Amino acid sequence: MPDSRLGKAVIASPLAIQGLTVSYDHRPVVHSVDFITPPGSMSAIIGPNGAGKSTLLKAALGITRRLSGEVRVFGRPLEQEMRHLAFVPQRSSIDWDFPARVIDVVGMGLYRDLRWWQFGARRLRRRAMESLARVGMEGFAERQIGQLSGGQQQRVFLARALVQEADITILDEPFAGVDAATEAAIIEVLKSLRDEGRTLLCVHHDLATVRDYFDHVLLMNVRRIAAGPVDEAFTEENLQATYGGRLSPVQLARLIESPIEVRKEEAGQ
Amino acid sequence: MMETWWRALTFTLGYNTSLVTVGAMLLAAAAGMVGSFVLLRKRALVSDAISHSTLPGLALAFLVMGVWQGDGRVLPALLAGAAASAALGLWLVQRISERTRLGEDAAIGAVLSTFFAFGVVLITVIQTLSVRGQSGLTGYLVGATAGMLYSEALLIAACAVGLLLALLVWRRDLLLLCFDADFARTQGLDTGRLDLLLLLLLMAVVVIGLKVTGLILVVALTIIPPVAARFWTDQPMRMMALAALLGALSGYLGVSLSSVREGLPTGPLIVLAAFSLFLVSFLFSPRRGVLASLLAYRRLRRRVHLRQGLLALGRDEPIFDGLTLKLLQRRGHVRRDGVATPAGQAAARDAEHEERLWALYRRRYPDDALHREHAGLTPIGQVLSADAIMALEAELPPEEAR
Amino acid sequence: MSEFMMFSLVPLTIAIIISMTCALLGNFLVLRRQSLIGDAISHVALPGIVVSFLITGSLASLAMMLGAGVAALVTVVLIELIRRLGRVEGSAAMGVVFTSLFALGVLLLEWHGAGGVHLDVEHALYGNLESLIWFEGTGLAALFDPVALADLPPQLGRAAWVGLLVVAFVVVMRRPLVLASFDPDFAASLQARPALVDLLLVTLVAVAAIAAFEAVGSIIVIAMFICPAAAARLMTNRLGAQIAWSQGFAVAAAVAGYLLAGEAPRWLGFEASLSAAGMIATVAGIILLAACLFGPCRARSGSAQRG
What is the model's pLDDT at position A258? Predict the structure, then answer.
């Protein structure tokens, strides 16, 4: 049972981060960040380069050691409830020459369901193929991963997370270096996941698409600047605070006021 | 025994020993300098490939000289052979890691093991022939300065001086290459040739060092002193100088120690002397040493926990973290049952005030805040002047609604 | 025939078993770009053995293997400590540790003179494959004669056990191994314990290196950890096929190297034989060279992001 002193929001949240601090070189790179991911939300973590976004995710997943703070999944300590989480790491951290096929990579998501004496159950292979179909990659199952384009690689990674059927999927820059078609396809899959009642948490770097893609944001620069529903937290003042005043007023005005028109303009260029 | 060592340390153990000592010191200094560049270029173990791939060249040169002159122990010829096969090995490492999908680690390992193995095969060939001086060849495996000839010591010392000079001449270019190869390219430097130069210098050090430390251990001279030097400074030129100094010191200690008793191998003693210097740096360097790092980590952790605990007290939130509770209890901020004491409540208010001041400061002067202490754990009074704090206080909204 | 049984069967079999064992583990070392850990570990076997000799005073195989095993673990732990706590780059940390320990081994060896003891640096490096003679192996019948079989050199049995252990490890741990090699962060998010997998792999590398070290010396170990697996990496894009290729290359190198060492001098008119261990490693290197020149998958695939 979750601790009775916990707040309701924490117990309902698939990933509640409280007071999380991570240090490197005697210096906090993430300092005392709180973020209670609302269940069924699609949340973005936003901040400039070096703001500790990826570090926050890795520490929240127990990959990087944390200096202080607590991470809870439905009110219970993270370590006991990791099966509720799926993680899509940054694509650039991978050796894409690795001798693995697309289907092998997706199969890695089934790690928890397979014992060592099982050499590939048909039922699980079907699950992997279904995930691939969901991201539109079923035709590439036998392809070596190095032969895919960047966007296709990202879709394979997403399929690997889908196969885990987790309550919350955590993505680190899923749109970095992918083509527009892939971006649209990925966001489509993510939205359908949310419609199933699952939660998504995403490190995101494109301010122009925040309003279209996400319903909650966490603005951070080492520490938390603001968090909440996009309409409340994604404001000019908070953005200026996050980016240390390095966004021009024109940029900001476009981002906040009329995101749709901005994108039209960009498409026209 | 101590007396012999003392005499070795003070260069009064004979002309030959002194020359060998000086030669080893110069060599180790050069190795430390080259090693610094190679370390900064993140290719520390390339020297391992170089040193092992000298063996077939050594053996072939020995074979040729042995058949030709009856005795294979001709140092210049052996060094030339070693250099030739090391160059071939180096070229293969480069080609394999550039042209195939294999990483540099696999290229290094493959070249060093294959070349060394082929050298061993050649040594068994030599053993079947009646060439004099065969035992001299094993000296190149682990190093032997005991029976070193005057001319040999002189050759090593002279080469080491030449290398040191070359390194001094090219230090700026090499540094630029190691620091930022792309930037160096935009400055009109030919980075490909500079890389080649660096590797050739490394190769020269390794080949000359063969006789002193042996081919398995010469790697250590190019790695350990630079790694040790890195603990003391962040500045590359200083690191290079320090690496040279530490290298020379290891050479000095190692050679002098080895003259204490008959049959003590020089190479291992030099390496162990270098390792001792490394160990001291690793543990006790105030900048990056382990003890300093651990203490700083603990201090930071306690400060973060304490601050978080006080803020939680101020907001009346439950505290779960064991360390936080312990720290608060020890300071008398909370009772055993977790309820805040009056002192704790006061401290919590102070912490909250401090946080708000820092937050305001970050908002007002974002660029300044970036350069100052990031965490805001230091009391603001220690960072900003009283006037600046007064100004901030004045701007502080009376009591922010949460 | 009986000459072959007596003098060549056992060394050849041991060479094949050890080559295959090392090559199997080598696949994962090469994939994780940790090839040189095999190099480091085979170097520190020497100090391990010397120290165990100084403590126990015996050269019994068990004591030697234990000493070398402890040395290997100490090495791995030291490398990790220096890398993490001192923030030193991995390969440099490795270079610091294994050269220092090797130096310690040589020093201890010379310090104690190790006079009449059959223990020297060259032996450690080259091994003594040729000395593994099966005196009772007088003919094919000996293969079924329990008395004769009992006389087989004990190194053969040990090599076989270690080989089985390694195969079992790879079969049981194949998923965590692949996962931790491909994507350590994702592996950690699945609680697949990548750090533990690392440690187990390195331990197995140490065990294989020590078993091999006793019979064939350390150079063959380093070559076999890297060359067959690296060559196989250039032949295929499938992990299963890569492992199969590496095993084939290992056997080919062992057989060809052993035969060449025995026969090549005779072709040239000498009456001596060359170092079999050295020759096997040389052949492995030549196979890798051929794969670098002609391997169908030798080039990097066009993956976009690469450091």
Answer: 47
CA angle A31, A35, A36 (to 5 degrees): 155
Question: Does pLDDT of B306 surpass 50?
Answer: yes
Structure tokens at C178: 């692949």
Q: Give residue-wise pLDDT tens across range C2-18.
A: 677 777 888 899 999 99
Nearest to A111 among C192, C239, C241 (CB): C192
Chains touching chain A through at least 3 C-beta pairs below 8 angstroms are B, C
**Measured between CB atoms, does C113 come within 8 Å of chain A?**
no
Identify whether the C-beta of residue C24 lies closer than 8 Å to the C-beta of residue C247. yes
Residues 169-208 in A contacting B (C-alpha not used; CB under 8 Å):
none
pTM > 0.90 = no
Contact B110 C275 (CB under 8 A): no
ipTM of the complex: 0.90
For the segment B120-178, what is each residue's pLDDT rounded down to a tens digit? 888 888 887 766 666 667 677 766 666 677 887 888 888 889 999 998 898 888 888 88
Determine phi and psi for A87, rounding to 5 degrees.
-125, 135
Chains A and C form CB pairs within 8 A to the count of: 91
Contact A89 C171 (CB under 8 A): no
Distance CA(B294)–CA(B61), nearest Å, equals: 52
Nearest Cα residue to B310 out of B298, B293, B288, B328: B328
Residue-wise pLDDT for A45-67, tens only, equals 999 888 889 999 999 998 998 99
pLDDT classification of A269: cutoffs 50, 70, 90 = very low
Long-range contact pairs involving B303-309 (C-beta distance under 8 Å, separation at least 24): B303/B375, B303/B377, B304/A21, B304/A23, B304/A28, B304/A31, B304/A32, B304/A67, B304/A68, B304/B375, B304/B377, B305/A68, B306/B331, B307/A32, B307/B351, B307/B355, B307/B377, B308/A19, B308/A21, B308/A32, B308/A68, B308/A69, B309/B333, B309/B334
Mean pLDDT of chain A: 86
Confidence of residue C98 (pLDDT cuts 50, 70, 90): very high
Structure tokens at B42: 């993140």
Q: Between these two residues, C125 and B322, which has the higher pLDDT value?
A: B322
Q: Does C172 touch chain A (CB under 8 A)?
A: yes
Mean pLDDT of chain C: 85
CA distance B350 to chain C (A): 35
**Is the minimum CB–CB distance between A72 and chain B shorter than 8 Å?**
no
- Residue of chain B minimizing CA distance to C285: B114
Rounded CA-CA distance C214/B94 in Å is 33
Find the CB nearest A96 among C176, C239, C301: C301
Residues from chain B that touch C220, judged by Cβ atoms under 8 A, are 117
Q: Which residue of A has its CA nearest to C174?
A: A116
Q: Are B227 and B280 in contact (CB under 8 A)?
A: no
A145 shares contact with chain B (CB less than 8 Å): no
